[in-house]
Each structure stands twice: as structure tokens, then as C-alpha cells.
Write a structure and sequence with these properties.
The complex is a heterodimer of chains A (162) and B (315).
Chain A: E1 8-9, H1 12-26, E2 37-41, E3 44-48, E4 61-64, E5 66-70, E6 77-78, H2 80-86, E7 94-96, H3 100-107, E8 111-112, E9 121-127, E10 130-138, E11 142-145
Parallel strand pairs in A: 7-9
Antiparallel strand pairs in A: 1-2, 2-3, 3-5, 5-6, 8-11, 9-10, 10-11
Chain B: H1 3-11, H2 21-28, E1 35-38, H3 45-53, E2 58-61, E3 68-73, H4 84-87, E4 91-93, H5 100-105, E5 112-115, H6 122-130, E6 136-141, H7 144-156, E7 162-166, E8 178-184, H8 197-201, H9 205-225, E9 226-236, H10 245-253, E10 257-259, E11 268-269, E12 273-275, E13 281-283, E14 292-294, H11 296-299, E15 304-310
Parallel strand pairs in B: 5-6, 5-8, 6-7, 8-9
Antiparallel strand pairs in B: 1-3, 1-4, 2-3, 9-15, 10-15, 11-14, 12-13, 14-15
Helix pairs in contact in B: 9-10
Classes of the chains: A alpha+beta (162), B alpha/beta (315).
């Protein structure tokens, strides 16, 4: 079996850029990374709370901890899984959903129309104080859910705050 | 022959080793209530219970494990995997017997663990909870599609101490030796008949023998990867001695030392001998009796076989 490219430890400047982005975009304090190590694989950055010497010691490591950011032509994109971990520390570009209709639209991978007091780009989406994941805001469209398909739900039942 | 008759006919090969065999068969046709495990990295079991009860789900506590609840009635959602709380990682739908191998391996915070056949991740995520997201779990699987399920479960439960590797378990390479290894091996899954009777009804003896050979190779590689003095849990959710005692007997012949498996529910010891349908007489070393067999009719669960083996210290 051939392995895909193995993740490598991030260089100090890559960690700095990562922390700069999180602080600049979301106001997440740099201290959040205490206890985590950062790895790079292709255009993705991963955060890992385990022993940083292990990933390089085993064959065919495909993922290490949680994928935090994916690079793209439009700049870094935070993953929903990562925002669920650290989004509670965010102080800006956070959208709190207001009702079950918005919640279901977001969890279903849909769009929440309207203008929100945030900068265009990726935002932390919350409901009832709980981080749901990543949204992409544009004043023209509103908030487009960035939840990957396995995190979505079409269920009309199960909201956790009524 | 109907599927029911095929199922009974297949399982009859174990009549001589399963106590109260008629009751064992009777339980194969009783539906099994789903059970859920609280994600204690995010909330307490009591909080989860009140949250789900307020949605109309009827739960009862599992007396021997505080993280688990039996779903007596899922309410209007119909399936306990279809709630927002599930999507947010507050709990994992996991059959009770599947929780036992991690309990036997008993990893602690800070440990280094290899999970040889990890997907879809019920045991990996349970161990991450036991380790409180510290230490390291190397979660390996061979199947690309199943790795996707593993990744999504690890993400969903907000677990950060897992390295996922994709290797054929017989050929994992590592420059570190592991103090604890879980080999929950691919198996014929006879123990899931209450959830999937069609699967068991279709099983062939050729499949069982092929799986037995695979399990022998997997346990040999696992022993190589274990550090001296380290612990290996071997488990299969099946009843076939070819996949259970025969594999453990092989590990014992390679020098592994069996240890007693202690569990908080009713079980039977591994069997010392058995005659298969072709008249082949299997005789196993006394150490296999330290392993346990979990039968559905003993605790109203699925089925499982679990052995605990220690690698001798280097001399």
C-alpha cells in the first residue's frame, strides 16, 4: 500500500502566521495553542494534543489531531471541527443564530439570508452559546453554511434549546 | 431454508460450548435496544440524560458503566443517531459489548496506545475519553472509506490526541514500541445477529477460516509492535473458536502471557476444547480460559470474545 504525503511539524513561522490569522480574524488569543503542536500536510494545518514525536514514527499517518485550516486561493479557511474546539474563545466575526429556522438552515448546509454585523469572510456560527461550525458571510448572500456533509442534518427535530 | 433457519443452523455448531443454548438461540431473535455513550470530554452523563429526556427520549442507566444509557424509546426522532446533540458530539451510539475491550485495556491519561483496526471509531473515541484527550492514540485502519467514518467520529467528539494511519494491519511500521495495543480484529461478527441476522445467516465456514488466518497474522504483527511488558487486548465480536481461542492459543505459543479478564457483567471463560462440524478436535492451552466469552442471553447484549495478553519483559 502506498502512503499519501505524511504530515510534518510546522515551521515556527507557519505557527506564527496561523496564530496571527486566528487573532486577527476571530480575536482568539494566542495562548489557546498551549498544549497543542501544529502539523502541516499539503495545504492543511493540523492541531494535535498528543505526543508530537509519534506521528513521524508510524507509517502512513494521514491525519494528526484535528484539521484546523485549509489553504485556498482566497486565503485560509478554518474547518468546522476546529471552530467547535476553539470558537468559544472568539471575540469577533461571530454570528449567533436567533431561531430554530436559522439553526436548521445552517445545520442542513444551507444559507441564512440577511445582513450581519461581521466582516465578509469566514465566521464562527453559534447557537445557544454552542459553536456549530464555520460559515462564509457575504453581504449579498448572507451566511452560507460551510459544514461538511457528514456534519449536516436534515432533521427537523433535536434542537438543543427550545 | 428461511434466514431464521439458516441462522439457527449456523449457530448450532456452538451447541456444545454455549451454556443454556436454547436461551442463546431465543435471544438472537430479540431486538436489541440501542445504547449511547456520553462524551465526557464535553458534558456529564446526567446533563446528557436530562437534555435527551426533555426531547422525549426514554433512557435507562447501565448499572456497570456510568457513561452509558440504554435507549428504551427514542421518541419521535426514531433513531438516536439523528439528533443535533449527536451531530455536536455529545454522545456516541455504541453497543455495550463494544465498550468492553477498551475497559480491559484500560488506557490512562498520558498513555500511548495503538488501535490496530480502529474504524469506525467507537473504541478509539472511548479510549480518548478514558485518556481525557491526553497521551496519544494511533488509530489505524486499512479501508479508505471506513477511515472517513473514523475521521468524522473523531472530529465530531472533538478528540485531538489521535493520529490516524492507513496501513494493512499486518504491515504497520513503527519506530516506537507500544505499551498498550487494542486488536479488535475484523471477524465474522456472529455476535451482531440481533442487529443484523441476515449477515450471520449468510456466513460460510470458508469465510471463518479465512478470517482466522488473517487474525493470526494481525496478532503476530501486534506482538511485534508491543513493548516488553506491554499489554495486548485481542477481541472479536463472534463466537467461532477458530477466531477466538485458536488465535489466542497461537499468541500464547509465541510467548505471550495470558492475564485474567475481569468484567462487571456475566461472562463465560474461553473454551479449552471444541469439535467442529467436520469432526476436527481443537484443544487449546489452559491460558485461553483466562479470556472471556460474552453471550447475548447472559446480559441482554450482543456477543464478544476478549483476551488480555502481556508480552514478557526482555531477559
Amino acid at each position: 500500500m502506498r502512503c499519501s504525503g505524511s504530515p510534518r511539524p510546522a515551521e515556527p513561522h507557519e505557527v506564527e502566521e496561523f496564530l496571527d490569522y486566528l487573532e486577527g480574524r476571530f480575536g482568539i488569543p494566542r495562548e489557546f495553542l498551549r498544549g497543542y503542536s501544529v502539523f502541516v500536510s499539503g495545504d492543511s494545518l493540523w492541531v494535535f494534543s498528543g505526543d508530537a514525536s509519534v506521528p513521524g514514527a508510524v507509517s502512513c499517518a494521514e491525519s494528526i489531531g484535528v484539521r484546523a485550516l485549509k489553504g485556498s486561493g482566497k486565503g485560509p479557511k478554518p474547518t468546522s471541527a476546529f471552530l467547535r474546539l476553539v470558537g468559544r474563545h472568539a471575540t469577533k466575526n461571530v454570528v449567533d443564530l436567533e431561531d430554530e429556522g436559522q439553526l436548521l438552515a445552517f445545520m442542513g448546509g444551507g444559507i441564512i439570508s440577511g445582513e450581519f454585523p461581521v466582516d465578509p469572510g469566514y465566521v464562527v456560527v453559534r447557537f445557544g452559546g454552542e459553536v456549530l461550525g464555520c460559515g462564509l458571510y457575504s453581504p449579498r448572500l448572507g451566511i452560507v453554511s460551510q459544514l461538511p456533509s457528514h456534519m449536516r442534518s436534515s432533521s427537523s427535530w433535536g434542537v438543543f434549546q427550545e | 431454508m428461511s434466514a431464521r433457519e439458516r441462522l439457527i443452523s449456523h449457530l448450532s455448531r456452538y451447541r456444545s460450548i454455549i451454556p443454556d443454548f436454547d436461551s442463546f438461540i431465543d435471544y438472537q431473535f430479540r431486538p436489541l435496544s440501542p445504547t449511547i455513550r456520553t462524551n465526557t470530554l464535553l458534558l456529564e452523563p446526567g446533563e446528557l440524560a436530562s437534555m435527551l429526556s426533555s426531547r422525549g427520549m426514554r433512557l435507562s442507566a447501565v448499572p456497570w458503566h456510568p457513561w452509558f444509557f440504554r435507549v428504551d424509546d427514542p421518541g419521535q426522532v426514531g433513531n438516536p443517531g439523528r439528533t443535533l446533540e449527536h451531530l455536536l458530539g455529545y454522545y456516541y451510539v455504541q453497543e455495550l459489548t463494544s465498550a468492553l475491550p477498551p475497559m480491559v485495556l484500560s488506557p490512562r491519561p498520558g498513555d500511548l496506545v495503538l488501535d490496530v483496526a480502529a474504524a469506525p471509531g467507537s473504541k478509539t473515541t472511548q479510549m480518548a475519553q478514558m485518556m481525557r484527550n491526553s497521551g496519544t492514540i494511533v488509530a489505524n485502519d486499512v479501508d479508505y472509506r471506513r477511515m472517513g467514518a473514523l475521521r468524522s467520529n473523531v472530529d465530531r467528539l472533538r478528540i485531538t490526541n489521535v493520529v490516524m494511519t492507513r496501513n494493512d494491519g499486518r504491515r504497520i511500521q513503527s519506530s516506537v514500541a507500544f505499551p498498550r495495543i487494542l486488536l479488535d480484529a475484523p471477524c465474522s461478527s456472529e455476535g451482531i445477529a440481533r442487529r443484523s441476522p441476515e449477515h450471520v445467516a449468510k456466513l460460510t465456514l470458508t469465510q471463518i477460516r479465512g478470517l482466522s488466518r488473517l487474525q493470526m497474522s494481525l496478532i503476530r504483527r501486534s506482538i511485534d509492535l508491543l513493548e516488553p511488558g506491554g499489554l495486548l487486548v485481542y477481541s472479536v465480536c463472534t463466537f467461532a473458536p477458530e477466531e477466538a481461542e485458536l488465535v489466542v492459543d497461537h499468541a500464547i505459543s509465541l510467548g505471550m502471557e495470558p492475564e485474567e479478564v475481569r468484567l462487571p457483567l456475566r461472562s463465560e471463560p474461553g473454551v479449552r476444547e471444541w469439535v467442529d462440524e467436520r469432526g476436527r478436535h481443537y484443544r487449546f492451552s489452559p491460558g485461553v480460559e483466562m479470556a472471556v466469552r460474552i453471550y447475548p442471553h447472559l446480559n441482554d447484549t450482543g456477543g464478544m470474545f476478549i483476551a488480555l495478553l502481556r508480552k514478557p519483559e526482555a531477559r
